[in-house]
Design goal:
The complex is a heterodimer of chains A (225) and B (540). Chain A is an alpha+beta fold. Helices cover 39% and strands 12% of the residues of chain A. A 5-stranded mixed β-sheet of chain A has the order 2-1-5-3-4, covered by helices on one side. In chain A, helix 4 runs antiparallel to helix 5 and helix 5 packs across helix 7. In chain B, 34% of the residues lie in helices and 17% in strands. The chains are: A alpha+beta (225), B alpha/beta (540).
Amino acid sequence: MEETVTIYIMGKKYRVPSGLTIMKALEYAGYRLIRGVGCRGGFCGACGTVYRTEDDYKIKVALACQSVVEDGMYLTQIPFFPANKSTYDITEAEPTAEEILKEYPELYRCVACNTCTKSCPQDIQVMDYVQAALRGDIAKAADLSFDCIMCGLCAARCPAEIVQYHVGLLARRLYGRYVAPKAKHVQDRLKEIEERKFDQEMERLMQMGEEELKKLYVSRSKEPD
Amino acid sequence: MYAGRIEELMRQAEATREKRMQETFPPLTPEEKTQLLHDFHPDYKKGTKKKVRIGPNKGSSVPKEFADILEAYSLIEPEDCDLSRFDYDVDVLVIGGGGAGCAAALLAQEHGAKVLVATKLRLGDANTMMAQGGIQGADRPNDSPLIHYIDVIGGGGFHNRPDLVRALVMDGPKVIEWLEELGMMFDKEKDGTMVEIHGGGTSVKRMHSARDYSGGELMKTLRDEVRNRQIEVIEFSPAVELLTEDGKCTGSILYNLETQEFVIVRAKTTIIATGGSGRLHIQGFPTTNHYGATGDGVVLAYRAGCKFVFLDTIQYHPTGAAFPEQIVGLLVTEKCRGLGAQLVNREGNRFVYELETRDAVSSAIIRECQDRKLGIETPGGTQGVWLDTPLIDVLHGAGTVQSQLPAMLRQYHRFDIDMSKVPILVYPTQHYQNGGIEINEWSETEVENLYVAGETSGGVHGRNRLMGNSLLDVVCYGRRAGEHAAEKSKNVKPGNLTLEHVKRYHQELKAASIEPQRKSPMILPDYRRDDLREKAVEII
């Protein structure tokens, strides 16, 4: 006899095998998912879930595809949150606190309650990166927010109505474009391509028969690990 | 955590770590590789393929699961469909909201087109989002597009289409620069130099990364930019059929998954960027792919008259998770092996050079488990081999797994396994559709005004794609398709909307006595419990 647990999907009781992820438990219960499901591998943020277990008042969070059902779990998914997304021109932006506050002035309302951090299924220090953005420490905001999958649970629970994950992405894009030095070697290679340095040899490779290509392939030297 | 017999076997693998670190494992000779693939790669397994009975590739062998969706009737009854009016009228329709779709939409808009993006789930719900390891691009001084070309062709078994490979490798540095300009946060040295490592089958370190969220960061950046430029996007609305007139593509029929209505789009040019097909679960393999990867684009384009190439070859990623049960089949990035993690059998020995091409490494793991019986049995009763991930910190210093592989570390940590301290169990998983719809170097297909970009297309990777070339592919060909489709649309008059091609296809299906219940595209897999699925009735 398979071990089962009792879960409540949006308040409705189902018995499902223990050991299933929340997502697979929903499907086991008979749901054919359209919302609240995406990559099923913990990368896309489609399946943000809030839950509470019996005898506990605390609201907890999980990704449905990455978390196992627990007995007595009351759960619902938050597949969409009507978050504010500023539309900005990255080519005109500046890597400063002013820029981020221009796009997201509600950042001023952060009361440092840390609810965002506690709501993150990725265990990211969300409040710390919001505070870093407020200080104009773009590098830190970018670094701390890096693993964000934009599931939206932080924004859903923020009393100041901040959309942390858009702030994090803005910080990363500002960092990537303006703070981190440009890769010079990429520019050098582009110049060579523009000057058609490889064209003639490329033509020759394209005309080459399989045997000749095989020889080249087998004899090519490998850069040490 | 591991317990009992598995824990004992893990200790055995740990015991040989120091000895293994001193060993160099010889790469396969070309003859050995050919033999290994022939004997153990799932593509060669007998009884798993079928000859397609209808359409432009009639007689070609494809995996049975693919034949089932190609030899199938439209979800639309062409006679009953009112095409006298349309809901959208655009220059360029992009079907698919992943890496290729977003890149195409951005370029098409830059080239002056009115663009509409239609996507099955949300914008960015795509395999691109899940790509971890990185993106290739020949931009280091000791590298060149020529060396990249040879790596790609050799990795693909010398079957790749030369003009497609040229476009891929010559665009590589441009793609990297474009992403850098958009603010994608690459791993860099302090002076801005890209951090680049090896992937399976690379002869020069060419793999750019964004920790192990490379595709994720790429996808989030492109998606953000599509939203910044206010390109119109319709989510939860997959394309279920193309529209044609006299063999040219004139638009598409979408299906709103929530209101269950058809949405008619008239478009001067159409780009299919619907991604791969892992959710067909070919040969019953688990998959790394996202929920919507059901091969729809191949079905649509094929019905409209496009040919496919190399659709008989599927990439099985060597290292899918084999334990714990909850994450079986999910990706364990090749970056682990790029950073030095070794593959180890039950007795604690290596059995393949870890950075062979994926087809070879997968075959070697299957041989180790099925033929040599040196795999490790998981509690779920399946087989796996060790991926000795703690080696990464030993080789590169403590904390490397944490800084370079945070997604992987987090995934295993959720199940109480610290992969920086203990090895993990892996087995091949269905990962990538190597082939697809035939295109030229501008992503054009044989059907006029129809483009295909990204995983749905075929030819550029031959019979085996190298790591990091899919992210490059989606951006390279997404950009090309977007630009070309926008320019082309300037000289195209909007066409009439008909389903003539579907009627013809249906006649062919009937003539081949294919039962009318078979419908495609699949759109979404159905993972409901079997008995419930059978009992379920739609009454409202």
